Amino acid sequence: RLRTVTGVQTCALPIYLLEYTFHAEPLTAGAAPAPETSAGVLTLTYTRPKPPTDVTVIVEAADDVAGPWTPVLTEEILADDGTWQTVKASDAAPINSTTQRFLRVRVTRP
After folding, report:
1. pTM reported for the whole predicted model
2. Under 8 Å CB-to-CB from 78, ≥6 apart: which residues?
């Protein structure tokens, strides 16, 4: 799904990479995916282009905002329309095992 602003495909511009990845409107303010708790762990639910694609989405977790960050290995596909997937990433560390826990999303272009 491409959008055009003044004749330019906005999904091709780095500034719009997150909007493209999360299937958001690039010219409309919106909320980013936010962590939630489920079954005693942090989770993050987001929409991404169905792989293989031109972006790579990696959810990472850490005990400190400075890191070290490790990839979250548990992902569940909640919905798939053939083009976009809604994904729920779950942290492996129980919330009660640490005083703080952080999740982040790293989006790159291969």
Report:
1. 0.74
2. 45, 86, 87, 88
Q: 59-73: buried (b, 16+ CB within 10 Å) or exposed (e) per residue?
A: bbbbbeeeeebeebe
Q: Are 55 and 109 in contact (CB under 8 A)?
A: yes
pLDDT digits 0-9 by tens, 25-40: 766 766 677 788 888 9
Of the pLDDT bands very low, low, confident and very high (cuts 50, 70, 90), residue 75 is very high
DSSP conformation letters of the chain: ---EETTEEGGGSGGGHHHHHTT--TTS--PPP--EEETTEEEEEEEEEPSS-S-EEEEEEESSTT---EE--EEEEEEE-SSEEEEEEEEEEEGGGSS--EEEEEEE--
The two three-digit tokens of residue 95, written as one number:
């919330």
Q: How is residue 94 written in tokens?
A: 């129980």
66 token code pair: 């400075």
Q: What are phi and psi of 105, to 5 degrees?
A: -115, 125
